[in-house]
Amino acid sequence: MPERACRWVAFCVARNLGLELSDLFGPTRGAPRVAFARQVAMYLAHIGFGLTFATISRVFVRDPTTVSHACRIVEESRDEFRLDLRLETLELFCRWGWAALLHTVPEFAR
């Protein structure tokens, strides 16, 4: 189930930032906008869902040190008020949406 939660976060981030979900799972870094979206998804999966770097790295097919770096980058970016507000809203949306999904379709958690 942690892998599904991680993919849910990636889906929410991609939708919010106007990207395709596949962009976040591409084998290369991609454009700066895509790379930052991936970092945001990794950060929210870790902070909002408590997923480990190892789990997140498996889902995104990245090294755990890359996930750690992504979390540092996003955390440091939260000093900018508008980005911080957007990330907070996105985190709440991800968590509430996931809870609603599991409530509606409990077998999804398996």
Counting helices, strands and paired strands, the structural category is mainly alpha
Terminal CA distance: 6 Å
* Largest β-sheet summary: none
Number of helices: 6
Give start-end ranges of low-pLDDT stretches. none
In terms of DSSP E residues, the strand content is under 5%
Q: Which of globular, elongated, flat, extended, rod-shaped describes the shape? A: globular
Order of helices and strands: HHHHHH
Q: Specify the helix fraction band.
A: over 70%
The number of strands is: 0
Summarize model confidence as the mean pLDDT: 93
Write the layout of secondary structure elements.
Elements: H1 2-16, H2 21-24, H3 32-49, H4 53-60, H5 64-77, H6 81-104
Helix pairs in contact: 1-3, 1-4, 1-6, 3-4, 3-5, 3-6, 4-5
Written description of the protein model:
The chain has 110 residues and is mostly helical. The protein is built from six helices and no strands. It has helices at 2-16, 21-24, 32-49, 53-60, 64-77, 81-104. Helix 3 (32-49) crosses helix 5 (64-77) and helix 4 (53-60) crosses helix 5.
Question: In summary, what is this structure?
Answer:
The protein has 110 residues and is mostly helical.
Q: What attributes characterize this protein structure?
A:
110 residues; mainly alpha; globular
